[in-house]
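Work package 3, deliverable 3.1, input record:
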Amino acid sequence: MKSFNGMKRWYLFQLVKILMCSYVFLQLTILIFKIISHLEVNITVFNFCDAFFTIRHYPNLYHQLMLSVLCSICIMSVIIFIYLSSSYHPDRTILGDAHFASAWEAKKAGFFDKEGIIVGKFYGSPIVSGGFEHVLTFAPAGSGKTTAIAIPNLLTWRESCVVNDPKFELFNITSGYRKTAFQNDVFLWAPTKINTHRYNPLQFISTNKHKRIGEIQLIAHTIIPNGQGEPIWYQSARELFLALILYLIDSDEVATLPNVYVISKRHRFNEWFTDLVENTTHLDPEFYRNASSYLNTAEKTRASILKTFTGYLEMFANPVINAAVSDSDFDLRELRKKKITIYIGFSENEKEMISPLLTIFWQQLISFMTQDMPTPKTEPYAVLCLMEEFSILGRLVNLKSSLKILRGYRVRVLIIIQYLAQVLEHYSKAEAEAFKNIKTKVVFALDSLEDAEYVSKLLGMRTKRVTQRSQSVGSNNSSSSHSHHLQAVPLMRPEEIQRLKSNDAIVIRTGHAPVKAKQYRWYRSSDLKKLPCGMVSVPKQNPMIIPFEKNQDESNSSNSIQKTIHDLETEKMKIQAEFLSGAVLNALHNEE
Ligand SMILES: Nc1ncnc2c1ncn2[C@@H]1O[C@H](COP(=O)(O)OP(=O)(O)O)[C@@H](O)[C@H]1O
Ligand SMILES: [Mg+2]
């Protein structure tokens, strides 16, 4: 950050003001003195001291000079008094005292602190939202959210960080610097790219049998949310999902989401599933309960449930995505133990498809972060969650409910969206309040009138003195009169917020006067633009094409049928042998 901070700049600004006043005062004194004394000597501000020491030896001139000083003081006092009384009228706050913060107020509100999320620039210095407060930024596309908020924070936040990275812009510009300057282990999880680190959400499911059901159900709700039709189909599909995940975790198979897809699409799935339920006993009781609930339905219903189920998992038909979720190269539970930066990269046209995966990622992250209170000794690092394109994530129920407590767990959240209504896409109006109530908000010139009206209301009302002029025209003469009254007007009207300059930012922090700041664009800042130093290398994955094991299935099922036939034959032979031995014994008995 800049060494010459905003407060020093403010002091300098005040000093310049005082110097300018002194200059005017001296000029005025010299002018009055020249008028009174009728002297025609060349006295200026710069030789005033010399002139003063000379004049001191002439009592008459000296008195005239003192009189000039007195007059000058009087005139300056009147000017200052008029200026102050016009701006500090006692009634000026009666209908509202909203105003933008001065440098003093910004300092008192902690905006010039060294630690925090960078929100803009004030008096030439970066200002931050400190104290582990979260930040909500909303501004239209192309207004500077990435370049003035996301990138400056990634180039200055030294500890762990998890970043949504649409367009890979943030990774390209900041990853190299975060690795070399901040010694972070840097990962890029880009599920739709071959060059990616891997993350398998199922690997992070708790081994605790009491906890894991809830965790799997949360994943099930994210992948298979309720859709347009009857909720029963989605609920049944989620039951099937729970059963299959429990099977994968407790069996020898690798628990990955692509494997769930592969199993559900296997040849003669229902036969295999029935066989599994009937011929095993060691799996989780919830497996048997949910599997039986599926198998007990009519054949047609079963087909519909399976179709719904596989429909939601179709992204795992993609070998590139499968490779990206087949294993984990990083551990979300270590974010506070080590300095780790994880970029979640995706491009514009793929974001809808992988949105459930990203939601699961963030859900697991928030759950891990709020599981146990971190101890400074074992978990010394704070975590910044930078959620660009927050709206592409589905419902993060645990984020909404834990926003208030996250600061206690040393987690800061920076949410970036284009307009407030985007929050309503996944949350009800009441739920969205949790996000709107984030203490620090940053806005640039807004497009949405609704948002502009909301911000205008947040900024509050100020008292304005309005002069009304009325004119009456009589038969002989006309007269005009002036009347003054106070009126409550918004500090900024919605249209003024929509017309903010492209470099302006408004920072609103609950409990403090808002700050009319400048954007801190990294490519214009002499401090920041020299920092980026390339990007870190990312391993190349082999796309995972999973073979369709029809023959094996058939041989498996024919094996099991043959086994059954073999068993029956053995049984038959046993019965025959028993029967024969019985008959032989009877015959022997009869002979006796
Ligand atoms: N390195 C750069 N040099 C100059 N202009 C840039 C640079 N990066 C981005 N811009 C410009 O800054 C503006 C804001 O970009 P950006 O921060 O990405 O907007 P947003 O994230 O709000 O969509 C865009 O008009 C873009 O053209
Ligand atoms: Mg952007």
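Residues 553-569 have pLDDT under 50 and may be disordered.
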